Amino acid sequence: MDIIELVNVSKSFKKVLLFEGVNAIFEKGKIYGITGPNGAGKSVLFKLICQFITPDKGEVRIHPNFFEKGNDFPINFGILIDRPGYVAGNTGFENLQRWAKIQNRIGDHEIREAMIQVGLEPKTPQKVKDYSLGMKQKLALAQAIMENQQVLILDEPFNALDAESVYTIRELLKTFRSEGRTILLTSHNQEDIDLLCDEVYQLNRQTLQQVSLKK
Known about the structure:
3-stranded antiparallel sheet; globular; 6-stranded mixed sheet; alpha/beta; Rossmann fold
């Protein structure tokens, strides 16, 4: 089943053309890698897919199952693009409780489970202001997965993670794929792309082209 389709999408940002006439299809149950140099527009592409911004030309089509009446944004999307704004004086668990109340679909059990999955201790009294960069990254990942989201849009999910944590998150994403979830991710580490992705697209020089995987 096609979850996301880009049809002749063009976008400029701050008067700079990032991509033009982009076409792609992302199917259920696969991990897709989006590669390209800094400034190529990978984060902007993800924001278009999440419908936070609109294309200058073309269309981003999301399967109707991911919309509900009265909501202009796709539901059941777990998103890590820019880190969410957390309350620095609260614990990670308390922050996730605040975010969970927006949709009111999960309780404390699901929050604890997501934190443990990414390598955070839910019971720690440590405040987010005292978190390391890696811990903040894990907290953002926990937010992206805690509601059992079926589509994950992850911009550089491995940033600031140590080697053990990278392995943990890679294995977690593989499990999600086996469950039928769809994952789009970016990474500047080619090993992440090679080990995880079923298909890879390169964004460069205003085009998005599918590239071969070396497996």
